[in-house]
């Protein structure tokens, strides 16, 4: 029975995909509305697919070239294999497919949500959330199926068939090859997230600056040439990009836990692989309980709280996962002490491992709650930005920046407490398992996150179709909640990235053959500083790309208003496809440089300066990237909901301010600044953190101190200082000892 338990994991992934297919079929069968609504939705779907095809074409070349290099590198060291190239390709393909699944259903659910909003908020939530849950279940199902199946293959190939040691080089090789899957997933995720983010924000900023600010027409007005590109951007950035992002995060977290689990000698009933197998099983159970949680996201009527319904489904999935983890861990792990020899050699028990899972889920929940506080309408941070909008654009910007910076304090303290407490209960393995516990309910987290862009698109279609006011009011309620859930989802992703990066870091140190990262050494400290700089230049490139693409979009929208007579009078249709083309070309062109930094920086530093300096680089990227990600995500989310608050009216100094007022115009400026923060550079930080760590993990056997071809001719110089006393005088004798490797 225990030997067959390994096959449960891919089976759980298949169940998740079956439920996803059922929900997808239900969404597709819902009413689509009138011919005009269908035509607008068709433009959005066509634009989104055009972007994906253009992106996939470029990424196809990258995947082939990278796979060839990986395959060759797999022949150079004992603990790798050319099969890592196949693993990489599978990870890249599934990551891209995960994004496609989400985008495909989102472009179908948007118009159906609009139609449902004609009847009630309850029906609109039902359609939009089920559309989001298709994406969540698809991403988690593919990840569990892919990781579980490949682990079975590599475990049989490299360990069982050779009679290898499950704690030795045989299992190390299996997991090194499996790391190729994670590298492929994270590589595609980075380009999808950055490219999609540039696309959506170029269109959004262009549409806002000319449409709302200059022409004075509503958001998503059919007369705005950039409005279709803007709605396409919601899908390619917040749906396809987010899908690939969370797929990569999910896989990286499981991988980090498995790599550390290999170093634990376990006298269990699973052939000694229980610590390696456990993260996979937790992920599969989390997927099952996320399915259960989706059935509790319902509201009774239009006055019910949508946020409360989403929170209810989320908490049910979390609590069920905690409850199931206890008997699972008690069953899988052996009695007595377990030890991961590195990182302080802390001995722990299976109760400590369960404690780490609980800690991870608590950290994830707290991060979501803190992010919700800093980005939600009606809360003090957003209200402070609203108030400062009354004195102009500059004070609005100042208010948003200060909220974003302040919002880093509580999450970092929660993360620090989570890292330290999970380490105390189960060592470095506990930190990794905490991350795995946090990511266990990814399907539910992603469903909650993906419903927002669907609702946003639904509102856009309602506006462009000229539907009654109450329809747009219902979609606006969903959209406002979606802004908050998007921010909480990004906060959740950053938190998971921090824990996962630490686990990957620990795994890297072991494979690289180094005992510690000593920042007292000048070269390591230099690497730390360079690493801390990388998230800044990465963000700069991403934000500047949005600025350049937005300028092209602004010029195109102005040209159409100027040269096509009758647009403002509804007598002529704008050339939507021209704006879609601008965003597509700009995003594909501009995503290359940030992606190259993430992939090349660890390779250059690792091969040029060695494993310890690379460790310093990773530490710098992780700390700086987490802070930058939290700051940008929360500032952007707070600016966005401050702007949206004016649509219902806000009281500032005893006076009601509405859409179109000077204070509202200042809030639009803040929202425009925050757009690339929260949708381009901010959410890319978590991928940057994990991708650089995974690249380091993959190249670790090639640069390790015991690899046999790295630092082969290096000389180690030790300085021995001896102090003696002669006739009461202090004499220092310095002796240099040269040791050749």
From TrEMBL:
It catalyses: Na(+)(in) + diphosphate + H2O = Na(+)(out) + 2 phosphate + H(+). It holds the Pfam family H_PPase. Its EC number is 7.2.3.1. The record marks 486 as: Determinant of potassium dependence. It is found in: Cell membrane; Endomembrane system. InterPro entries: PPase-energised_H-pump. It comes from the Bacteria. The chain crosses the membrane at residues 6-22, 58-77, 83-106, 127-155, 239-260, 272-295, 315-333, 353-374, 412-436, 492-514, 526-550, 591-610, 616-635. The keyword Transmembrane applies. Keywords: Cell membrane, Hydrolase, Ion transport, Magnesium, Membrane, Potassium, Sodium, Sodium transport, Translocase, Transmembrane, Transmembrane helix, Transport. Homodimer. Sodium pump that utilizes the energy of pyrophosphate hydrolysis as the driving force for Na(+) movement across the membrane. Belongs to the H(+)-translocating pyrophosphatase (TC 3.A.10) family. K(+)-stimulated subfamily. This is Putative K(+)-stimulated pyrophosphate-energized sodium pump.
């Amino acid at each position: 029975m225990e030997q067959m338990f390994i096959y449960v994991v891919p089976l759980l992934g298949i169940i998740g995909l079956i439920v996803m297919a059922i929900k997808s079929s239900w969404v597709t069968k819902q009413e689509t509305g009138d011919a005009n609504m269908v035509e607008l939705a068709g433009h959005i779907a066509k634009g989104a697919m055009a972007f994906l095809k253009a992106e996939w074409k470029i990424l196809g070349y990258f995947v082939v070239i990278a796979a060839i290099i990986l395959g060759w590198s797999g022949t150079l060291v004992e603990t790798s294999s050319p099969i890592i190239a196949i693993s990489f390709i599978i990870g890249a393909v599934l990551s891209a497919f995960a994004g496609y699944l989400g985008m495909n259903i989102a472009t179908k659910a948007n118009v159906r949500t609009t139609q449902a909003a004609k009847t009630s908020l309850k029906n609109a939530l039902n359609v939009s959330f089920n559309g989001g849950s298709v994406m969540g279940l698809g991403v988690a199902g593919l990840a569990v199926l892919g990781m579980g199946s490949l682990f079975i293959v590599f475990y049989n190939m490299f360990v069982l068939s050779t009679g290898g040691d499950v704690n030795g080089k045989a299992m190390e090789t299996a997991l090194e090859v499996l790391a190729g899957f994670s590298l492929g997933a994270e590589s595609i995720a980075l380009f999808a997230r950055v490219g999609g983010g540039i696309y959506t924000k170029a269109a959004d900023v262009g549409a806002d600056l000319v449409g709302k600010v200059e022409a004075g027409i509503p958001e998503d007005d059919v007369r705005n040439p950039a409005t279709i590109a803007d709605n396409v951007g919601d899908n390619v950035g917040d749906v396809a990009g987010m899908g690939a992002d969370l797929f990569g995060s999910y896989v990286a977290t499981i991988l980090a836990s498995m790599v550390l689990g290999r170093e634990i000698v376990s006298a269990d009933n699973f052939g000694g692989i229980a610590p390696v197998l456990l993260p996979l099983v937790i992920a599969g159970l989390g997927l099952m309980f996320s399915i259960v949680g989706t059935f509790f996201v319902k509201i009774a009527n239009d006055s019910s709280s949508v946020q409360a319904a989403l929170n209810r489904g989320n908490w049910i999935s979390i609590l069920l996962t905690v409850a199931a983890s206890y008997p699972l861990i008690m069953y899988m792990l052996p009695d007595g002490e377990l030890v991961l020899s590195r990182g302080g050699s802390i001995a722990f028990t299976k109760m400590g491992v369960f404690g780490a899972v609980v800690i991870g889920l608590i950290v994830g929940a707290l991060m979501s709650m803190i992010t919700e506080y800093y980005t939600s309408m009606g809360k003090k941070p957003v209200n402070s930005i609203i108030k400062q909008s009354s004195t102009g654009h500059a004070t609005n910007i100042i208010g948003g920046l200060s909220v974003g910076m302040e919002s880093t304090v509580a999450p970092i303290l929660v993360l620090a407490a989570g890292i330290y407490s999970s380490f105390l209960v189960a060592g470095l393995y506990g930190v990794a398992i905490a991350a795995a516990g946090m990511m266990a309910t990814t399907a539910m987290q992603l469903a909650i996150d993906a419903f927002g862009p669907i609702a946003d698109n639904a509102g856009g279609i309602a506006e462009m179709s000229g539907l009654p006011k109450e329809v747009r009011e219902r979609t606006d309620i969903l959209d406002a909640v979606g802004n908050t859930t998007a921010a909480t989802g990004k906060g959740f992703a950053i938190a998971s990235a921090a824990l996962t990066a630490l686990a990957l870091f620990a795994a890297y140190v072991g494979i690289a053959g180094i005992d510690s990262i000593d920042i007292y050494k000048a070269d390591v400290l230099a690497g730390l500083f360079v690493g801390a700089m990388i998230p800044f230049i990465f963000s700069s490139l991403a934000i500047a790309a949005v600025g350049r693409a937005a300028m092209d979009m602004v010029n195109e929208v102005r040209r159409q208003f100027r040269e096509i007579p009758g647009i403002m009078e509804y007598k002529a249709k704008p050339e939507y496809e021209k704006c879609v083309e601008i965003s597509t070309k700009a995003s594909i062109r501009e995503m290359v440089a940030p992606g190259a930094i993430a992939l090349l920086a660890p390779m250059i530093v690792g091969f040029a300066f060695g494993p310890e300096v690379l460790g310093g680089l990773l530490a710098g990227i992780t700390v700086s990237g987490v802070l930058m990600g939290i700051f940008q995500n929360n500032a952007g989310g707070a600016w966005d909901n401050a702007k949206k608050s004016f649509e219902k009216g806000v009281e500032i100094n005893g006076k009601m301010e509405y859409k179109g007022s000077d204070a509202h115009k200042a809030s639009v400026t803040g929202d425009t600044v925050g757009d690339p923060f929260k949708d381009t550079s901010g959410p890319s930080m978590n991928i940057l953190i994990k991708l650089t760590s995974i690249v380091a993990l993959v190249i670790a056997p090639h640069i390790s101190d015991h690899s046999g071809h790295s630092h082969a001719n290096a000389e180690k110089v030790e300085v021995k200082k001896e102090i003696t006393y002669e006739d009461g005088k202090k004499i220092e004798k310095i002796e240099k000892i040269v040791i050749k490797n």
